[in-house]
Amino acid sequence: MKYTKDNPAVILSFEFSKLIIFYTDELEKLRKYNLASQLFRAGTSIGANIREAQNAESKLDFVHKMKIATKETDEVIYWLELCKEINNVPNCSTLIEKAIALHKILNKIIGTTKSNMKL
């Protein structure tokens, strides 16, 4: 991760993806395959979209890709909140907190980028 050393969003989303992978492995052990699959796809795509945004062709393209990452974060929060309500699945409260924090960071980045575009 040569160019991500100083990029908190890239680093946090990568670490979050790893946590999602571990969590979905636990869901699969409990035979919650469909839930694990949905959560895995949405959870790992956050970081992939943030990484893709680093190579955006313009600020507009950057904002668009970051908005996609934000939407994926919303989806992850949904799936995790659902998991929280289901019996017999591992606790995901920490993951929900991390997802909400990541969502806030992404919204801040988008807002800052948009305001800088108006200059």
Overview features:
119 residues; single chain
Short description:
The chain is an all-alpha fold and 119 residues long.
Summarize the SSE layout with pairings.
Layout: H1 8-29, H2 33-53, H3 59-85, H4 93-117
Helix pairs in contact: 1-2, 1-4, 2-3, 3-4
For the largest beta-sheet, the strand count, sense and barrel status come to: none
How much beta, percentage-wise? under 5%
Number of helices: 4
Shape, per Cα inertia axes: elongated
Structural class: mainly alpha
Distance between the termini: 32 Å
Task: Give, in order, the helices and strands.
Answer: HHHH
The total count of strands amounts to: 0
Low-confidence stretches: none
Protein described:
- The chain is elongated.
- The protein has four helices and no strands.
- With 119 residues, it is mainly α.
- 80% of the residues lie in helices and 0% in strands.
- The mean pLDDT is 94.
